[in-house]
Amino acid sequence: MNEFETKQRRIQAFLQERGLDALLLRQVSNFAWATCGKSSCVNTASSLGEATLLITPGNRYLFANNIESPRLDEEEGLKEQGWEFHTAPWWEENEALVQITAGLKVGADMAFPAATDISGDLVRLRSQLTPAEGERFRTLGHICAEAMDDAIFGIQPGMSEYEIAARLAFETQRRGAQPIVNLIATDERIFRYRHPLPTAKKLDRYAMLVLCGRKQGLVASITRLVYFGALPAELRQKAEAVAGVDAAFIAATRPGAVLGHIFSQIQTAYAAAGFADEWRLHHQGGPASYDPRDFVATPTSPEVVVAGQAYAWNPSITGTKSEDTILVGEQRNDVITAIAGWPVLTVEIDGQSYQRPAILEVK
Predict the structure, then answer these.
(1) Strand ranges, E, within the chain
(2) Are residues 44 and 138 located together in one domain of the fold?
(3) What CATH number corresponds to the domain at position 192?
(4) Within this chain, do residues 331 and 194 fall inside the same structural domain, yes or no?
(5) What is the spatial distance between Cα 261 and Cα 314, in angstroms, rounded to a whole number?
(6) Rounded CA gap, 210 and 212, in Å?
(7) Which of 91, 260, 319, 344 has the fewest CB atoms in 10 Å of its CB?
(8) pLDDT in single tens digits along all 363 residues of the chain
(9) What's the domain count of the chain?
(10) Which domain holds residue 58?
């Protein structure tokens, strides 16, 4: 059974379980998931795409205007995938959607009259990746790692955060991925903000680059830090501590583990490193697929880790951070955003060695 057939079976089972007649999808993430990586996105600032999918037990429909339909057919190949197109002029409502859904019990990821909101359920459904999605994720992870590597080795003191962000965006986009999150902080701003939008501030010694890159709907996350000069002892200590927490996350994220239990282990790891309350200052990440995080893990999360899922954990200790995207395997976890040749910190947990990225020192 191929990826598309697998997802259609999952959707039909979901409809039956929820007592629904149809599933209506317009979010960019869900559109990409249901179509195996096709894109309905035009405005990257919007979570809603420019086309809508409707899936019933007997049919698959696609609703779009006359602007979008040609590309969705000719470049995305969605007619060939089996979607029945209903195209309306761009200045009119697509009446076919109203007509086809009349009298149906609809679950939707968007506002729709009388529909049941199933957005949260879909997030959990799509986090169970198929083998084909796993391979696409590996390709994306490699792209993001290469983009980060080239961008960070191209920056110099005196560059503004805007310039650094532009380099990271360029290196990502030219490799065929979209930089949907591009956060840059330099020097004291790294210590002040967990989500630093780039500014005109110029780099003196210390820079943090954060990237969430999207390709074929999937999103991989990676953070790296660079210091120009001799790394201060306090910063080195924090970097080693956060690497230990990140390694604990990766070690604990194994099939069958409950996310809330993993979180408890991480709270212990923070405390053991001497930074017991740092986890309170920023979320720690969670499962990833068609959004940077499908949902954010908390101390009470009941969800169970499944082989084939992707996770992006992002522990931080004020002034430092460690973040990569991993694929959970039956035997081990693979860090798909690892950068070849990047300096690492080795952490030993239960006889296993975990390599986490160090702060790059440029002297």
Answers:
(1) 22-27, 48-55, 60-65, 84-88, 106-108, 116-117, 178-186, 206-215, 218-228, 285-288, 310-313, 316-317, 320-321, 324-328, 333-335, 344-349, 352-357, 360-362
(2) no
(3) 3.90.230.10
(4) yes
(5) 17
(6) 7
(7) 91
(8) 799 999 999 999 999 999 999 999 999 999 999 999 999 999 988 999 999 999 999 999 999 999 999 999 999 999 999 999 999 999 999 999 999 999 999 999 999 999 999 999 998 889 889 999 999 999 999 999 999 999 999 999 999 999 999 999 999 999 999 999 999 999 999 999 999 999 999 999 999 999 999 999 999 999 999 999 999 999 999 999 999 999 999 999 999 999 999 999 999 999 999 999 999 999 999 999 999 999 999 999 999 999 999 999 999 999 999 999 999 999 999 999 999 999 999 999 999 999 999 999 998
(9) 2
(10) 3-126
Rg (CA), the chain: 22
The amino acid occupying position 109 is D
Q: Nearest CA to 213 among 162, 175, 160?
A: 175
Same domain, 17 and 85: yes
User: In whole angstroms, what is the distance from residue 102 CA to residue 122 CA?
Assistant: 23
Q: Write down which residue in 65, 92, 126 finishes a domain.
A: 126
Neighbouring residues of 318: CB distance < 8 A, sequence distance ≥ 6: 191, 238, 278, 281
Contacts of 175 (CB under 8 A, 6+ apart): 143, 146, 147
Do 165 and 203 share a domain, yes or no?
A: yes
CATH number of the domain to which 113 belongs: 3.40.350.10
How would DSSP label each residue in 116-139?
EE-HHHHHHHHTS--HHHHHHHHH
Phi, psi of 59 (to 5 degrees): -145, 160
| Rounded distance between C-alpha atoms, residue 267 and residue 21, angstroms | 43
Alpha-carbon gap, residue 71 to 74, rounded angstroms: 5
288-327: burial string, b at 16+ Cβ within 10 Å, e else: bbbbbbbbebeeebebebebbbbbbbbbbbebbbbbbbbb
Distance CA 329, CA 305 (A): 10
pTM of the model: 0.96
DSSP strand pairing (106-108 vs 333-335): unpaired
